[in-house]
Amino acid sequence: MESRVNFTVIGTQKGGTQALNQFLKAHPEIGMVTPPVIAPHFFDNEKIFSDIPDYEVYHRMYSEKSLAMLTGDVTPIYSYWPNAVARIKAYNPDMKIIFLLRDPVLRTYSHWNMEYSRGDEKLGFLKAILTENRRRAGGAHRIYSYLHRSLYAPQVVNLLEYFERKQCLFIKSDELQRSHVEVMSRIFSFLDVDSTIIPEQQSVHARHYPQMPSWLNFTLRLYFQRDIVSVEQLTGLDLKAWRLI
Predict the structure, then answer these.
(1) Is position 115 within any domain?
(2) How many domains does the chain have?
(3) 151 in a domain, yes or no?
(4) CB of 65 within 8 A of CB of 185?
(5) Which of 126, 198, 211, 237 is 20 to 30 A from residue 63's alpha carbon, by CA?
(6) What is the DSSP code (8-state) at residue 166?
(7) Would you state the torsion angle of the CA atoms of residues 103, 153, 45, 165, taken in this order, to the nearest 10 degrees?
(8) Which Pfam families does the protein's record reference (predicted)?
(9) pLDDT of residue 229
(10) Domain that holds residue 79
(11) Residue 46 belongs to domain with CATH number
(12) pLDDT given at position 167
């Protein structure tokens, strides 16, 4: 089996990945999944990996034209889901990885707002995060992982256990919004496609929520402080805007 998908965006949910997906699709040298599929969710599919995985199932999500190009997969849960990164490595050891990171406090709150608006979450925000550990029963959970999924350091450590640093690009989602041209040029250079072709900036699925109480924002920043410092050390990103000090 010849590896066909060349890169993946593995993080993070509610971190601007849908916008990045649109920008990647707009580049003439990049092939993405065939609509209506948005995120392949191949490497986090436990049914597929209950036996020897059939990679043709994966490839059928793409057109022949897309597979003949530089081919990408945007599935943010890969960074968080157990064994997903190891499975990506087994599929294509040369895969390039883009990890999009958002302020963990904002990501946590946005994640809860999404699940609550869908009706998959019935609890208020404070009660939801206070009961999260019990509800996810210690492991990964697709819904009840507001805080757990926002702890990026273990995810970055796991990624770097399987892929060389030069295969990984870490981007802050607010930087993608604030410096669109510069960041997209950096991403395209990393992917070895024409970095002078910059898709027009657009807002994708932007939502506005009631502001979090300041005391809760402070408490969550205190909770994430140590993890943020670790992520800075692991990635070289400047995350002082996320920290208390």
Answers:
(1) yes
(2) 1
(3) yes
(4) no
(5) 198
(6) G
(7) 110
(8) Sulfotransfer_1
(9) 98
(10) 7-235
(11) 3.40.50.300
(12) 98
Question: Kind and range of the H or E element at 9?
Answer: strand 7-11
Instruction: Look over the chain and give the mean of its residue pLDDT values, rounded to a whole number.
Output: 95
pLDDT (0 to 100) of residue 110: 94
CA 160 – CA 10 distance, rounded (Å): 13
Tokens coding 176: 């993608």
Phi, then psi, of 8 in degrees rounded to 5? -140, 145
Going by C-alpha positions, the residue among 4, 10, 3, 19 that lies closest to residue 62 is 4
- Please give the C-alpha separations between residue 137 and each of 77, 148, 166, in angstroms, as whole numbers: 18, 12, 35
The predicted model gives 45-54 an average pLDDT of: 97
Distance CA 131, CA 136 (A): 9
Position 29 scores a pLDDT of 97
Q: Could you report how far apart the first and last alpha carbons of the chain are, in Å?
A: 50
Quickly state the pLDDT bin for 33 (edges 50, 70, 90). very high
Confidence of residue 81 (pLDDT cuts 50, 70, 90): very high
Find residue 152's DSSP bridge partners: none
Cα–Cα distances (Å) from 202 to 8, 179, 239, in that order, read: 21, 13, 24
Residue 107 resides in a domain: yes
How confident is the model at residue 82, as a pLDDT?
95
238: left (phi over 0), alpha (psi -120 to 50) or beta: beta
Q: What is the mean pLDDT of residues 78-89?
A: 97
* Residue 196 in this model has a pLDDT that exceeds 70: yes
- Does 70 reside within a domain? yes
Task: Please give the radius of gyration of the chain, using alpha carbons only, rounded to the nearest integer.
Answer: 18
